[in-house]
Amino acid sequence: MTLDRIALATLLAFGGGLVHAECDFKVEVNDEMRFKISQMVADASCDNIKVTINHTGKLAANVMGHNWVLAKSADVQAIATEGMMVGLDNNYLTPGDARVLAATDIVGAGESASTSFSPKVIETGESYTFFCSFPGHWASMKGDFILK
Fold first, then answer.
1. pTM score, whole prediction
2. Number of domains the chain contains
């Protein structure tokens, strides 16, 4: 086996938790309370970054819905806790919350939703997290968002 094939096999075997894309991300979710990725690395030269979430499970949005939300890591818990009070109609996010940098709608089985945002919302040296704001999901459905 050549070195290139070994490197590719290693990447495929162990790289499942990392997603790297230039400017366009596809995020799959299902009826579990977890993203299939733990980190997203975007290119700082992107004009816009697009994230599409696709729910491949069987449960409806009101039972096991998921969304994708981007915020500074320090703000995640407060955003999620406050969002519980505004309900599914607001995607469990307080309307107009400036701490939410980007977010998709909540999706259920067979649904998808997208959001786009400028990389200019990311401040150098700050830590960012993507998470699901459905009640109780944010604690385990989250990952690091990095702009390089």
1. 0.85
2. 1
